[in-house]
Amino acid sequence: MSLLVLMAFVTSCSSDEPSGESIFVTEEEKNMSEFDKWLYAKFTVPYNIEFRYRYQDSETDNYYNVVPAEPYKAQALAILVKSLWIDAYETVFGATFIKQYGPKVYQLLGSPEFDSQQSIVLGYAESGVKITLFRVNEIDLDNIYVNLTDAFRDHYALPMDLNYWYFHTMHHEFFHIMTQTRNFPTDFNLISAGKYHTSDWINVKDDEAPMEGFVTGYASKEPNEDMAEVFSTYVTSTDVVWNQILDKAASESEEARDIILQKLNMVRDYLNDSWGISLDVLREEVLRRTEGVYDLDLRTLKY
Known about the structure:
Elements: H1 27-30, H2 34-47, E1 50-52, H3 71-93, H4 95-101, E2 105-108, E3 113-114, E4 120-121, E5 123-126, E6 130-133, H5 162-181, H6 188-191, H7 223-236, H8 239-252, H9 254-275, H10 279-291
Parallel strand pairs: 1-2, 2-6
Antiparallel strand pairs: 3-4, 5-6
């Protein structure tokens, strides 16, 4: 949902027209925590983004039982999102790009959702406007971890891999926003036509998917998820990790490896031709920031 600013206009025949800020403090302003003020300064003012961490029934699917995000863990994730995601795009493409095309709302939830096949929902984007992220309460601030070495690490292993659960997910969902805004060439749908696991993708393991020409098991679900997984996997994977995926594909056949590279080239061309974006420049900036995650102070709000 877009942010809405209400403005009241008052007319008067007096020469003493009101000027400056109101002397009255609204209830909303009085109730703003330091975290709220930081979010306003870092997300709302520069990018018109609303970062929601409080639970709102209207913003969640009542089909699921979920819990609110713990504020101090939401704060840590907000710092990570700002540094590793927003700042990466701004560095490469400028603040206007984020303000114009970025999601208008981030919604955090403390617990996961499970879909009809009992797989965990990592996140989702709604109509190019809102991104929802889950499992916030499972973040361990004393044991921050980002996997940059093992393409097939168990996603449920501890410590929680922030790259998989959040940043891979955010790039994936943002790619959906981009393709909802400017259509992706339909030729992509033909590359793996007849090979998608529409109803049983959950049974396709990540270390088996490359042998069928998919970068992850989830990519085998259908073409839209496939292209988003190619994008998000590539920009968040070091050369070590990306080459592990290609080597696994090649262990089955050179054709499987070539299929993945063909998909990558189509994503690269789409970003360049439709958006004027260099996939590889973005990846370099994302990885540079990701490798510095351990230097971030996730407990202190800095302006």
